Amino acid sequence: KLVSDEGYLLLATPLPFVASYYGKETKWNGEPMEKILLSETQTWEEDAKVLLQDFLPNCGFQPVAVSRLPYLSGGDEEDGGCIELDDIVVLARKVDL
Length: 97
What we know:
Mean pLDDT: 86
Low-confidence stretches: none
Radius of gyration: 15 Å
Oligomer: single chain
């Protein structure tokens, strides 16, 4: 178990959500091991709504507190440097499914 029955999850991620994974399982290509599409529109607001109302509850977590704040990324070779993203920070309580 990663979270005890009475535990909390603190999640911080940029939205809209675009998964990437750099590891030997994907030969370091950045492709996610699992595809997760939160919303069709891929806007911050729609992804946040789906994350809070559908995704987290379906995984056994009830959001308790939410914040939106800037997130600075170091970027990569394609964008040439630092980029600003909108981050969501969620504190969620573990609940029974």
